[in-house]
Structure prediction request, 398 residues.
Amino acid sequence: MSYFDDHFDASQSGFATIAIHSHQKPDPTTGAVIQPIYQTSTFAQETVLEAGEFDYTRCGNPNMNALEGVLADLEGGVRGFAFSSGLGALTTLTTALFKPGDHIVSCSDVYGGSFGVFDKILRKYDVQTDFVDFRDMAALEAALTDKTKALHVETPTNPNLKLIDIAAVAKLAKANGLLTIVDNTFATPCLQRPFELGADIVWHSTTKYIGGHSDVVGGAIIIKDKRYEEVLFMHQKLIGANPDPFACWLALRGLKTLPIRMNAHQQNAMAVAEFLKTHPAVDQVIYPGLPEHPDHELAKRQMNGFGGMVTLTIKGGPSEVVKVTQALKLFTVAVSLGGVESLVCYPYKMTHGSMPDDFKLKTGILPNMLRLSVGIEDIDDLKRDLKQALDVVVGATV
Ligand SMILES: Cc1ncc(COP(=O)(O)O)c(C=O)c1O
Prediction:
């Protein structure tokens, strides 16, 4: 009998119910309503000849397997794999699936660290990646070679919040025998369902909205086809980028409130975007929920909401950026996103700082751009904070 022998049928349940109940029944030994943290590296065996369901935490642990199970159910996949970070997930995924000589095409404005995995790590092992604007399907098609094995999509993109048509990319991938891999970190399964749009593999930085409280780093891969289970499980165990039990426990706790948090994030993000449009120090506001966003129609079709991230450019350059960010009181200057508290980041120097400058400029990561992770504080307080900070540079820029 498995630890998770189950009490709960995800196929008959709604998203919020799955987030709270899937793989999270009361502890079988004590009745604790919340699964205890199994802070153990190893598990006693009945005999030397057979291990139980768990033997060593790098290969599985009740907290890790609970997280993997609920994430698989939330994405509508068949199996989840948890990792110690999003990049741990991406590195394990790409190492497991690709071999020297293979070629990947990725959308161009991916998270800087993901760019680094493709550009610095995989290239060393002769797995080549080309970066293309996936909104240009002709350019994407032209980038395919006879060595191409997969298309990698991040949508909405970071930090430009461009939308990529997952269904169209997946259709092209299928027609050419390629895998479609989606980084679903920004949207979460709450707002975007890549498998329903034809994707094969979804991965996440669970550090962001899934954890939701800026207190844990983690990652995940979810597959829709059992065919990849064995190879991924082997690489998960042998690469060893797996999460510790407490990290899984924190991610599980965060997950329970994902739907209500996402709702609050996006309500605030919409209000912040509308407010920013009215401020004279702001040049451009980028939010998929705004009707003037070039991908607004696609966002409406592909997502169940527009998310909690807002990007803006301000009038001026790096010195105005520094002034505004120093003046903010509620928006903390920090990388990362998706926590309940609001953060502001300067992608040009922070999250995407390690990308070559010409690549940044080509993909629209500009020296006057700020990315807001809009938290779930009271909206009037957030607007007031943004106003007083942007007011600091009005005289200088208008
Ligand atoms: C969209 C996206 N994907 C992946 C990552 C990497 O995740 P982690 O920092 O958990 O390794 C990040 C981190 O910021 C991200 O924003």
The radius of gyration is 21 Å. The chain has two domains: 10-255, 258-397.
